[in-house]
Amino acid sequence: MESNFVILTAADDWTPYLERFSGLDVYYSREYAMMFAEMEPGVAEAAYYEDEETRIFYPYIKREIPLFAGAGYDIVTPYGYGGPHLEGNDDSIVPFYEKFRAYCLSQRIVTETVRLHPVLGNERYLDRVLDVGYIRKTTGVKLGRPYEEVRRDYSSMTDRNIKKAEKLGLECVVGGPEDLDRFLELYVETMDRNDALDLYYFDREYFVRQMTPTPLCESRLLFVLHEGQYIAGVILMLGQRFAHYHLGASSTAHLHLRPNNLLFDRMVREALAHGSEVLHLGGGYREDDGLFAFKASFTGGHHYRYHIGKNIYDRELYEQLTERARAIGPLNEGYFPLYRGIVTA
Fold first, then answer.
1. Could you give the domains of the chain?
2. How many whole angstroms separate alpha carbon 289 and alpha carbon 218?
3. Crossing angle, helix 156-167 and helix 259-274, to 10 degrees?
4. CA distance 83 to 59
5. Is the peptide bond before 66 cis (omega within 30 degrees of 0)?
6. Is the pLDDT of residue 345 over 80?
7. Which residue in 48, 90, 110, 178 is a FRET match for 252, CA 20 to 30 A apart?
8. Gyration radius of the chain's alpha carbons
9. Taking every annotated instance into account, which residue ranges of this chain make up the domain BioF2-like acetyltransferase (predicted)?
10. How far apart are CA 106 and CA 285, in angstroms?
11. Is 221 helix (H, G, I), strand (E, B) or coil?
């Protein structure tokens, strides 16, 4: 058969294409891409490719380049993990990118930034067509086995902290839409405590949309209660194969009760009941930091490698935009694309 290459917009129905795959993760739906396209801002698109042996699906966000209106566009994967998902022959990534490159050049797309999927390990074929660089480890709970066996992977300290939390009367419950404001209050407190960047302060509408089921994801809101008070919460995303810890929140005044230990254990139970293969917990802010160590205390050394892929489609325009940005102010030389890396006071 001849290869088939299609670009889908946010106005198109992606469902017939999604149904052709067996392992698309939660990050690949139209709804998810549209949600984060509004935050970038940009527009959601997806590329679909098919040949005799292979199918590829790739959602991304097409953004106008800031400060230089009309100069062109760049593309980035939605928040989280993604990149081209391939089922079939890995070699097909080359003809897919030949067609995708031609499309990008026709649309004046200057660069591409791809947050690769650690659990899927799509860097194994994308390093042929992207400049792929390792960022840091992530970690996940290997499921597909009895809970008692999974729990043996917990560190001894984590196991003790779960028992301590239970002894103190903490309990986990599944929340509903009526509990979103409780979670949002805890989430804002957590972001404030961690001096988070503005981009992590999602508004209420984001949480409403995140909790709305998509063809690829069911999000679940979990809470820890102490004496009737909501003291910690998490959004768990349940997909076709994998579950993901998405966003967590906790009350500063109750951290000494170790609610997060109980919360993460409940995520394991929920993911097991859903039939997930892996509960992916993500990584830390830096390699092997305290956040990563906490997550890894549940996973028994089941780690993954997170990479970012980069492409420059129009080198001449890239250099021109970079020089124009440099004239505005100093640049963060480690940022990509560099023309977006103007350092602000």
1. 4-129 (3.40.630), 139-305 (3.40.630.30)
2. 30
3. 100
4. 7
5. no
6. no
7. 178
8. 21
9. 159-285
10. 37
11. strand
